[in-house]
Amino acid sequence: MRTHHTRRPGLPAYVSSQPFSGQQYLAFSFASIVWYVLSSIGLAPPKPSPAPAPPPAVASPISTVDAQPLPVPSPPTPTIQLAQLPTLSRTDQQGSQIIFNGRSLPVAWSVRQGRIGIADAGLMQTLGLSLLANQDLNRQPVQWFTDVATEPLLLDTWRSSTFRFLDITNLSQRFGWQTNIVGDTLQLTTPPARILGLRQGRQSWGDRIVIDLDRPIPWQLSETTQEWTVTLDGQIDPTLVQNFVPLPGNRLTNLTVGTTAAQTVIRIGVSGNLRPRVLTLINPHRLVIDVRPDFLVEREIHWAPGIRWRQQYVNLDSQRFPVTLLEIDPRTSGMSIKPIWTNPDTATGTAPLITTALRWQAIAAINGGFFNRDNQFPLGAIRQNGRWISGPILNRGAIAWDTNGQVFVGNLSVQETLSVNGQRLPIRHFNSGFITAGLARYTREWGTGYTPISNNEQIVTVQADSPRPGAQERIVNQQGGGAAGQTTFPIPANGYLLVVRADANAATILTPGSEVQRQFTTLPSTFDRYPNIMGAGPLLIQDRQIVLNPQAEQFSTNFITQAAARSAIGQTATGTLMLVTIQNRLDGPGPTLHETAQLMQQLGAVQALNLDGGSSTALYLGGQLLNRSPRTAARVHNGIGISLQTIP
Length: 648
Prior knowledge:
Layout: H1 22-29, E1 93-95, E2 98-100, E3 103-105, E4 109-112, E5 115-119, H2 120-126, E6 130-131, E7 139-143, E8 153-159, E9 164-167, H3 169-175, E10 178-182, E11 185-189, E12 194-203, E13 206-213, E14 219-223, E15 227-232, E16 235-236, H4 238-243, E17 252-259, E18 264-270, E19 277-281, E20 286-291, E21 299-304, E22 307-316, E23 319-328, E24 335-341, H5 353-359, E25 364-367, E26 382-384, E27 387-390, E28 397-401, E29 407-411, E30 413-420, E31 423-430, E32 438-442, E33 449-450, E34 458-464, E35 473-480, E36 489-490, E37 495-501, H6 504-509, E38 515-523, E39 532-535, E40 539-542, E41 545-546, H7 557-561, E42 566-572, E43 577-582, H8 593-602, E44 605-610, E45 619-621, E46 624-625, E47 638-644
Parallel strand pairs: 2-11, 12-16, 31-32
Antiparallel strand pairs: 1-4, 2-3, 4-5, 5-9, 6-7, 7-8, 8-9, 10-11, 12-13, 13-20, 14-15, 15-18, 17-18, 19-20, 21-22, 22-23, 23-43, 24-47, 25-45, 25-47, 26-27, 26-39, 28-29, 28-39, 30-31, 30-38, 32-37, 33-36, 34-35, 34-37, 35-38, 40-41, 40-44, 42-43, 42-44, 45-46
């Protein structure tokens, strides 16, 4: 009973190289940045330095050297020997916006002990800085127009409850950035730069675009499923733009160049669900954009206590699947894991996972269970801290956990009955968007009111005689619900609503003034031990064995046979949790359910549950989506959030 997701169509391909207006630039260049963080900040431009004259316009294939593979090597233990900047007068500040080269952007920043830090998501989005593998969670190796083998950069880290900050103090000195704090605004300005040339060439694996630069230059990337927009904070000679003639590509469908007052915008049309691989090189300075199916850069980053970020390819027979996952140690001091949903005040609604994670102050999150995309109601179990926000359906798979790191995975159902006037009536569902004939129950966890989901429902109000636990419950009112979606009926704080759908007998029995008794049983009862539950399905692995049986969990044939991007949660033999996203195989569709179970087994899961997938598949960390562009991710109803107390 899941609503199928529809991916957003890509934007139209541009076929000219005319200059872009400021409005066009803003629409395409900064849309994805807005999803990543909360903050606000500001800045003043530096004195312009003389720029070298551009070379003659050239549109030539990539040289033999540029056509060679450009892997990102694993860095040695990085060091950075730079003079210290003067200590800032302001300490222990935080903000949520910067003015970057004159543009106000929502990027989180922090000052600690006179050192300036910017959220790693913000640095990746505004500067194009790349994070490298690390072993020390207090030090982050990065690459930005440097040779990681001979001159790696190592930045100190610290974090808040929602972001990890990288110390840019020495980095800004090295590259000549100007930084200033005015009130609650951080201002950051980089030196003027120029684009000296643009080349492209076909490769055996796809296409390569090389941009020649006069110095290190900030660049930003915005993605849809059909087009990438790369914006560089530097000017290009108009003659070079006019003379540039795109060559036919293997995997790119179009290539155009445009300009604004101080920026160069390159649009790359792509076929299939590809993502860009971008490298920055030195001697000379270049930006290299590869259009290739094996776009994922494998790495392992120790990101925060109890949180490790991994990206890797996993082979299954002859197929290769890009996998992005977070390893979470639930026994970490100060860590909290709980279901999260769009709005804490109501069980209905959808939002981008980034928005929901920030609302709940989660530092990491993965999308969770199913929902109806049309009416935005949950379709499966959500229990947080003992409160049932949404009830289970169809005996589907669920994962439960407690605050001690104990986890249980199994099929979950609830049996609930109502005794009234000597008769017993089954309650089919509670707090659910899943509707069948019979009784359903809605509590204050659903919200302050209930709006009929189907036509001609009967709304029965039940209240307790007093607020004390175990007080007698009785029916106080029954009224017609009318047309679906028209009238909202209040849910009493010390009671609930019974909703009667297509059951005249039950409506006759539930008369005002009648006393009622409820019996509630969780099956299996093991789930009662766990305050937090997320339902989805189907089950993938139990006790190291693949137990996939989607038919028994009443999933549709289309869902069972679909090959699509997947989200899953698993537990390893050591007790760590894995939040896993699996994208499309190289030059093919995403994994099937059976392939997902096999991949989770290869990753080391001894228990595993499939979560909602397709366009809902999203993995969040510190202000960013790790597995995809936020512009390609659908809005979701709920997820599993990880909170981590701030280090004093």
